[in-house]
Amino acid sequence: MRKARSTPSSSAWSKRTWLVEDRRAPDGGAHALKIYTRRGDAGETDLFGGPRVGKDELRVEAYGAVDELNACLGQCRAASDHDDLQAILCDGQARLFDLGSYLAAPDARNREKSGLPEADPEDVRALEVHIDALESELPPLRRFILPGGTKAAAAFHLARTVCRRAERRAVELHRDEPLSDAALGYLNRLSDLLFVMARVENHRAGVADVEWVARER
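Predicted structure:
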């Protein structure tokens, strides 16, 4: 595996998410999950059903970027007051969790055996439906716009940029270890949706998008 390029932040979809130690509660009932294991202290982590790899491996960087994106969607949910956008974000977070598990499990046979979800082309189509519906309430986009406006819009713009980075990491991984079209397509379309949602937040608040104005030469 190639090493990943360094990035400002990389949250790992690691043992904490899928491979936490499973312990039976004292009463034999609910499972207790141990948060730390110390197995990653030397800079390695476990892939689901696969080998231990360095935390700077490209696959780890890819699902770490997806995990970071999921956190950004949580920030958008905290900032938005609109029920329809909240519902879209809630579903998006679940789908990103699915995508993270897909990226963390390189062996298709292990994914199938464990019942891990695969990326679904219908999820990509659902994002397109949301984009078309939300764009219908917006004025035409005639200029480039800068991230900003309301706090909620700014949160969506930040999520959009993190989504693009997650997509770049996935594409880089795809060159070495092919990923499904739906996995790549979902990230591409989600970034478009987040851009539209940022504009919707500003529009519903009566705040104009911040247009980019070229400096005079």
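Summary: DSSP finds seven helices and six strands in the chain.
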